[in-house]
Amino acid sequence: MTAPSLPTGFDVAKHVAATRADCALTVGFDRRQGYIPRFLVQLHYQVATAPVVWHSIARMDHNETAATGHDVYREGLHVDADRRVGPEVHLALRHGPLPANRGAVIRGCVDYLDAEADYFVDVFEGRHSPGARPDGRPTGVNENLPLSVRRR
Length: 152
Hints:
Elements: E1 12-16, E2 23-29, E3 38-49, E4 52-63, H1 72-75, E5 78-81, E6 89-94, H2 102-115, H3 117-125, E7 150-151
Antiparallel strand pairs: 1-2, 2-3, 3-4, 4-5, 5-6, 6-7
């Protein structure tokens, strides 16, 4: 099985196993003197099998080093969700205070995207509109995650 491309331009980039066989997770982050100033976590979906084609359908990021970057500690967590048809959507997530340990935040983002992969695949494929879940829960509610993420 092939894997999606790793994020480029980061000090560390790796694949992370996903629960769904047709999904994969990638993580990229920088290390600066004992802390992580930026990271990117992406959920990829296999949109074709012959040849295998991966598409990034959801991502969570943090970048305190760029003037136009997103700082999760000041602005909160969000997911940029792609759709096969239609523009990308920005889903703001409601959550409690984030851990100071940025590795824990990255792990929480990985766990969140993996746990919500069915939802993000359905949004990508147009089976559900962004922000509306078929089970009635708001997007982002997953009590099993350490970040206690809930949609705003």
